[in-house]
Amino acid sequence: MTLPAIFLSHGSPMILIEPSPARDFLATLGARFEDVKAIVVVSAHHDTREAVVTASPQPETIHDFGRGFPQALFDARYPALGDPALAKRIEALVRDAGLPATLDPSRGLDHGAWVPLMLGWPEADVPVVQLSVSSQHPPAWHYAIGRALVPLREEGVLIVGSGSLTHNLRAIFVEGRDHDAAVPDWVSQFADWVHARAAAGDEAALLDAIDQAPHGRDNHPTPDHLLPFFAAMGAGGVPLNAKRLHHSYTYGVLAMDAYAFH
To answer: pTM for the full model?
Structure first.
C-alpha cells in the first residue's frame, strides 16, 4: 500500500499533557496509518542552510523548548531507533533532484518530531529519520524536497511535515491567551483560505500562501512552521490531492490542522 504524505500541526509541547481535540487526533495516527515501516519527519524546529538528514542509529530526544514548562516534559524520552540506511537514501534522492543535502550522524529528534510521534506511536517501535527545513529557501524549494521523497511512500515510509498551520507566538505570550481562548478572525480566515485552496487543488496559490492568504504574515511572522506543509504537499505527488484530516485551535491563535496528500 502506498502511504500518503501528511502535514501535522504539532502545537506546544504542552499538548502531551493538556487535553484537546488535537491531542486526541494525534493519538489516532498509529491506527490510522498501518504498516508503516519508517517515518521521515520534516520538522520546523530543525532549520538549516541546506537539507540535513539525521543519520544516528539511536537519536536522542532533544528538549528544545525554554524554561517554564513542567519537569515532566523535560523528563520525557522518545527512544525510537534511527535508520542510517534510509537517511543515506534520502540524501541521495535529494541530491538526485539537484538539491544539496548532508547527513548528520549526531543530531537527535527535536520536539517537532517526538511530541506528535509520542502521541501517535507511543511504543516508539517505528524507526524515525528527521529532515530539516531552511528558512533561507522559499516554499518551492521545500516542495521540491518533498517531490524527491515521493518514491519512499511506495516502500512503507510515512513522510510527515511537522509545523503549524498558524504560528504567531507573540500573540500567545504578549497578549496572554489561555488554552481555550477565542479564535480571532485573522487566524480563522487564514486557515479557511488554506482549506479552500487545498480542496480546489490550487497548488500555485498554496505555495504563495503567506503573501496571498488573508493575514498570511500575521499568522507567520517567520515561515519556518509552514515550510513543512510545502514539503508534505510535494511528497504527495501530482496532481495535488489534499484532504484535511483535522481542524481545531489551541490558545486561539494556533490552528492545529492536519492534512493528507496522496
So the answer is: 0.97
